Amino acid sequence: MKPKVFITRQIPDNGIRLIQKYYEVEVWKDKKEIPRKVLLEKVKDVDALVTLLSEKVDEELLERAPKLRIIAQYAVGYDNIDIEEATKRGIYVTNTPDVLTEATADLAFALLLATARRLVEADAFVRSGEWKRKGIAWHPLMFLGHDIYGKTIGIIGFGRIGQAIARRAKGFGMKILYYSRTRKEEAEKELDAKFVDLETLLKESDFVSLHVPLTKETYHLIGKRELRLMKSTAILVNTARGKVIDTKALIKALKEGWIAGAGLDVFEEEPYYNEELFSLDNVVLAPHIGSATYGAREGMAELVAKNLIAFAKGEIPPTLVNKEVVKIRKPGFE
Ligand code: NAP
Ligand code: GLV
Ligand code: GLV
Question: Is 268 a catalytic residue?
Fold first, then answer.
């Protein structure tokens, strides 16, 4: 008998087709998130689980899933999963790095460009007929934004996506500063990037882009003090996790001009609504679409499948997060 996997949302077919060769597959077809109560029922007899970042995988859930051996997260970030609890129980956790790096870096750069050049505001101005009504074809002082080429970018979290941002910034002739948990000397040389402390990065950058995972250490990493350190002409971009920024402090900073603008793909709660933030002209917003390209999403589906299949064959999954788990239980369903 094939092991049972429950997939908590429709993922691209290429992944499902691969998984079906090794697993009995059940997919939650509703577009909306699976209600917690239903998920807690579903996990009772599953051997494997495919999760999204919207599902909280905590002690309570793991407690109800005695047969669960592998959780294959359909995302690179896994802050929704209690890794320590999973490891203790010998449950393998995998994620989807690399396949979404370029797509997410593209979106971060798109937010940087759109915020600096006021693209969304400008689009609304044309589309609403305001341009025509005003009757001014071109004006030397109309819709002025911030220079990008040759400016300084500060990258916080210099991992896969952070370094992909640096490669893009290089093409824009930018000076590259970064701050990260560990120094990356090789990448530094390749990308001509300078390792600085957080305070220096915030003080000297014209653009600050966040690429750290959400952890206890990075929760509200950017708050009042940090926003105060930034240039009044600087733009903050967040495609990491909403909780890395203290939103209340950010709104104050944007309203009072401590910084010039923000491009946000992620929010403290998702889906998000905040009239105070949304009434501001100097923000560009997106509904967590960093990895939302056809290619990246198919790549993620394939990688989820590869992880599940390797595990079913008794092999160590290619992108295992909790590597210590191998000492607790061997991969496979025996
Ligand atoms: P990664 O390769 O693991 O890079 C994260 C970097 O942050 C690493 O270099 C890490 O340092 C550093 N870091 C960790 N904790 C830190 C701390 N406390 N202070 C300073 N630096 C710290 O991950 P990635 O693939 O680039 O992804 C980064 C994050 O982006 C994900 O965790 C996810 O939350 C987010 N993401 C969002 C979207 C979206 O749709 N918006 C899409 C993909 C990813 P070390 O090198 O020392 O480990
Ligand atoms: C998306 O946010 C991810 O972590 O993959
Ligand atoms: C603008 O359209 C210019 O030609 O400078």
Answer: no
